[in-house]
Protein: DNA replication complex GINS protein PSF1
Amino acid sequence: MYAETANKLVLDAKRIQNLQHLPPYAATTVRAVTKEVRDLDREVNSLLAPYQSQRTQGSDGTQIKSSGFNPAEDPATACALLVNHLAMRRNKRCLLAYHRTRTDKLEEMCWSGADVAEIQSAATSTRAQSGDSSNLSADEEAYINSYSNLLAAYKGQWTDIDLTGSLEPPRDIFIDVRVLRDAGEIQTEYGSITLTKNSQFYVRQADVERLIQQGYLQKLG
Structure:
């Protein structure tokens, strides 16, 4: 059935919205959908080939352009053309929805403070058996690098404001946090602290908010 393969991309896009990291890029499915679009386009061209407009010479020597395909004269062909057109349109919309969802997720991860290298290697263990090193396609890797550079240049104009910080005002200035992953030594307004796994600290929220977003720290209470 036409567009059945493309529906898998829609289901993947819906699943991506509820995931923390991007799953592997569905390259095989994308290629199958684009191939179906090309096949449908060739079929449309073959159906219209006998009806291509032709120029004939009239009795007075003028060139007369004969009419092309008339749906009323051949409803069966018109129906086939309509079905193919709708199938191609649905396939393209499914492709756009899938790639837009993945792009939105990449941009969301950038704004949350995730590092580009961390994004590219996210959940690589799920692809270790296939030998791939990234869940992103080549185009997605190029896009995320360009977007990260653009975001860094934009944030560089506002050094006094953390544009990627939370929009909700903190309830408490100081909070208790637990270290989930070793993060090394960081500098705070009240001195330096070394973040080692399973240790706990009472720190100013503004100093560690980015580390909480990146998953290094867990807010307690």
